[in-house]
Design a protein that fits this description.
Two copies of one chain form a homodimer.
Chain A (H helix, E strand, L loop, with lengths): L21 H17 L15 E4 L4 E10 L11 H17 L3 E12 L5 H15 L5 E9 L4 E10 L15 E5 L4 H10 L8 H11 L5 H10 L2 E6 L4 H10 L4 E5 L7 H10 L3 H7 L6 E5 L4 H8 L6 E8 L3 E5 L5 E3 L19
Helix pairs in contact in A: 1-3, 2-3, 2-6, 4-5, 4-8, 5-8, 6-10
């Protein structure tokens, strides 16, 4: 756990502005700095950063828990991510896991490994980015750990409470359910392609939208909570690995399939312009691009009215893109009436690419 | 979150015995293997590994949360830790944080980064070690994450529930409180010294005890829970950073001090033999050695009887080693009647040693 020392080295508050390194302020110094600036406040019966463990109230008595490990060089690169963006993305990715369960965000813990020569300002910016992504949902930083490591590594754990009508798991879809997706998946993939070509110093139009989607994605915690509450959503998942990969996770254990219709996809003119400029098939970006953190929902057709009323409150909106089928497998009807399926579909990303199951 | 694929590559069950590497089985293969062998079972209203997040019941509605990041080369070394021991130690260290709050262990999450050329057998052994350390307390593996990284990195998060009479924080000690410690702190430090000289192939006597303390420390979750329940323990901490460092954490925010008496320390003849053989001052090993995961408790003198009755059920036992004083600072009365204090005391370990506050 983060342990805050009372006697932090003098001046750790403005350490970030003084060009100090982690080894200059020591472990207790950096923890005290982070606790003061970003630490959450304990409510009655709770304990915040500073003890062996945090104590946090979880309304309803069921915790929703997710953890994610991010390694510099594998999950993010300082080449085109600012430290604040790294923090933002990390928190959003975890918040998205809570959103996908329809959970109410409660608190997060951050374990950090860093080389002793890491600037305090860099660590501060990562935590600032997390705090900025956390603020709208009210999720609080309640604990963590810092240690030495030769690569900057972040492990985030988020805790939520089961919201009204929740949890909504990946299972429960039935043939005939309508598939809705929030926002406009695929922009993050376009943003990645853009950034790989070198980060633009100024961006407007589609470049700006693509960069924002990749660098500052927004978790759909409001949408997830409302989706659970309205009672119409039978199964839900976030599309962090891309629509097709995550849709297959939604269907596979129930042995179901889906039909998607390209003409219904929320793919804007701007999205097509961006895809063309970046030399990417817009359908592949939409269906196969990951790290969007949009939500994919299976909605009971008989409760569509209730869902649409709830969806009016979704900041991201929601679009019907297809339906669940009894026949396994995913088929996509293209705008020209042709069908793609199986090996013809774009695919996701595997952290340990298997020789038996090559992916990308 | 750990996401289990239904169609895991064929034969991942015995993968560990076939000399396979992570890249041979892929991310979904290794997750499915770990979930099947070590994954916890969901109770009614819960969700285990396989969704966006786990859902876990937390009796009483207050979660006790702690997270720890361990990097190979910094926190553990394959030179003298077997992978199973690495897992055991990691789980025990986290369980100890719950113990120090008097919490009831509920579940744990494991995020793992590893090079694709890591043997599946090594990862399996780490999880086997965690499962073995977890078993007596009933704490269940309910989620996690796996990813690529060029160094083996583990991030454990443990979740507990506030037990009867809990939580017991680090604050609350008062002058006159008696200081009790469980077990025999210092053995882990001796074990470290022994192992640094090369791991003995066979060990007996003090060598065996020292090695076990360092390689397979036991978290005092039973003791912590009973300590909270008896109502006599005003403040508690685990001595993972050594008695002196952690005692100072227990006292510092209340501006208190302590007097310890060497003659009362649970330092056995065998401990002295080991210290002499390893060229370590036994007092320094006892007071300054870390990674023991024993508990240090401040017991109200008026409730000593109730505490001693509760302590009869402690598998580790408990020993009074001193008392809390109004005057700040820690003073140790040596067996010869002399006193040591301040800079004369052994010290702990700082992950980012500060230039201003050099530690070791």
């Amino acid at each position: 756990m983060i342990r805050a020392a009372r006697d932090a080295p003098d001046g750790t508050g403005p350490a970030a502005r003084r060009g100090l390194l982690l080894r200059d302020v020591g472990e207790s110094g950096v923890i005290e700095h982070l606790r003061r600036k970003y630490g959450g406040t304990a409510r009655p019966g709770e304990l915040a950063i500073g003890d062996d463990a945090a104590v946090v109230r979880i309304p309803g008595g069921r915790g929703v828990l997710s953890t994610d490990l991010l390694v510099e060089g594998t999950h993010f690169s300082s080449d085109y991510f600012l430290p604040e963006e790294t923090g933002w993305r990390a928190l959003s990715a975890n918040l998205s896991d809570l959103a996908a369960m329809g959970a109410v965000p409660v608190c997060y813990l951050v374990a950090l490994a860093a080389p002793p020569a890491t600037p305090v300002a860099k660590v501060d910016a990562i935590f600032r980015g997390m705090a900025a992504a956390a603020a709208p949902s009210g999720i609080r930083l309640m604990g963590g750990d810092t240690c030495r490591g030769d690569r900057l590594t972040l492990c985030l754990t988020v805790v939520g409470a089961v919201g009204r009508g929740g949890p909504v798991s990946r299972r429960g879809a039935r043939p005939g359910d309508l598939l809705y997706v929030t926002g406009s998946p695929g922009w993050s993939r376009l943003g990645l392609a853009l950034l790989r070509g070198g980060r633009p110093s100024k961006a407007s139009g589609w470049r700006r939208e693509a960069m924002r989607a990749h660098l500052r994605p927004e978790a759909r915690w409001r949408e997830g909570k409302e989706a659970a509450r309205c009672g119409a959503v039978a199964a839900m998942i976030d599309v962090s690995d891309g629509i097709l990969t995550d849709l297959s996770h939604l269907l596979e254990r129930d042995g179901l399939g889906a039909v998607l219709a390209e003409e219904s996809f929320p793919v804007s003119r701007s999205f097509r312009t961006a895809s063309a400029a970046l030399g990417i098939d817009p359908l592949a970006a939409f269906l196969g691009g990951g790290e969007d953190y949009e939500l994919l929902m299976a909605v009971r057709p008989g409760r569509r009215g209730g869902f649409l009323r709830a969806a009016r409150a979704f900041p991201s909106g929601a679009t019907a893109i297809g339906a669940v089928t009894k026949a396994p497998g995913i088929r996509v009807r293209r705008a020209d009436g042709s069908w793609i399926e199986g090996a013809g579909l774009p695919s996701g990303f595997d952290h340990f690419p298997s020789r038996e199951h090559p992916v990308r």
